[in-house]
Amino acid sequence: xxxxNHDDYEVIEKKSIRxxxxxxFNYRIRHKLFSGGWSKVFDRxxxxxxxxxxxxxxxAERDTLVLLEQFRIxxxxxxxxxxxxxxxxxxxxxxxxNPEQVAHRELEEEAGLQTEQLDYALTYLSTPGxxxxxxxxxxxxxxxxxxxxxxxVASENEDIRVHVLPRTEVVQLLEQGKINNAASxxxxxxxxxxxxxxxxx
Length: 201
What we know:
Largest sheet: 8 strands, mixed
Number of helices: 4
Low-confidence stretches: none
């Protein structure tokens, strides 16, 4: 369906502005136009923070979800609280590490859980207008009674409170706007759409 691909743009120059946890680059670029011809050369800044994995820990026997509560710097200006309700998540730090390995690691570190069934849901670009990050979402079948009360890695300044809640209550939190970070919203909506399939597997 899409008319253009990687053959239809040209990177004139890529320049590093800042390198670190959040790296910033300036691109001079042009691309083909739907009306024909090429665009003018223009500048765009883009942030590279790597790619991430999100895991929805779901207990099908109890119909419960494991939800995390933790501080997020990007939510400081939120009216309610910068402590967000979200699911297990982590960055792919090692190029030799695949998303499934990250999912298992983060599930243990943040919620004290293990799984023998990890189902891939989807991958999406979080903010492609200014960031390269891709997020892969998984559903992990877990025994929610084994969840820890607190989680996180102290050396990474993680301080996580773990909640085990009925799935219907978590959906209500979403509808009330209490769950408002993109990865958790998208993951939970995917689970609602595919709930019967997840339960049957």
